[in-house]
Specification:
There is one protein chain. This protein has 182 residues and is mostly helical. It is globular.
Length: 182
């Protein structure tokens, strides 16, 4: 289906080659989705700067958002990557499946965050007032809200790039939610 190749180091600009080298040092490989950003001379650097920017959310909270958003957008690449990263951040397989539904019964604060991320994504920013109130009642701030919305945007970009390009998933591939739970 896809006419998009995954560019190799020699196929990309010098700036992107340096980023590939840094990714190889940090991760041991260049994820296919990141390599796909390198079709543009500027998108990979811009995305990584945005994605790695300071935030009020912890690494674990970021994975809550990443999983909820990627499930709503049905992006198998990002679900696969963030399942692996979620495990590295201490979530169990069962917790990851629940986070994909926009719930976290195991932690009330993370539950409010997961519900918010799912609601923002499903409603394209027209957040339900009750969900927002629950988020604030859980102890989150207006700053956390803005950081969460930014993270929803960050993840949506990658979801859309993968869904459009269909480059191969280079993480252990997760099953569609209906298959796992059904």
């Amino acid at each position: 289906m896809s006419t998009f190749n995954v560019p190799k180091r020699e196929d990309v600009s010098g700036n992107n080659q340096a980023i590939f080298d840094n990714l190889n040092k940090a991760l041991g490989f260049v994820p296919n989705l990141y390599a796909t950003y390198a079709h543009s001379d500027t998108a990979l650097e811009n995305y990584l700067n945005f994605s790695n920017a300071k935030t009020s959310l912890s690494a674990k909270e970021k994975e809550v958002v990443n999983l909820a958003v990627s499930e709503v957008n049905q992006c198998v690449y990002c679900l696969s990557a963030h399942t692996a990263i979620g495990k590295m951040n201490g979530f169990t397989d069962e917790q990851i499946l629940e986070l994909r539904t926009g719930q976290a019964s195991f932690d009330s604060k993370l539950n409010a965050l997961a519900q918010l991320a799912k609601n923002i994504t499903e409603n394209r920013g027209s957040t339900d007032e009750a969900v927002l109130e629950n988020f604030f009642n859980a102890g989150y701030t207006k700053g956390n809200l803005i950081d969460t919305i930014s993270l929803v945007g960050d993840k949506t970009i990658s979801n859309y790039i993968h869904k459009t390009t269909q480059v191969p998933v280079d993480f252990p591939v997760v099953e569609p939610f209906e298959t796992v739970v059904g």
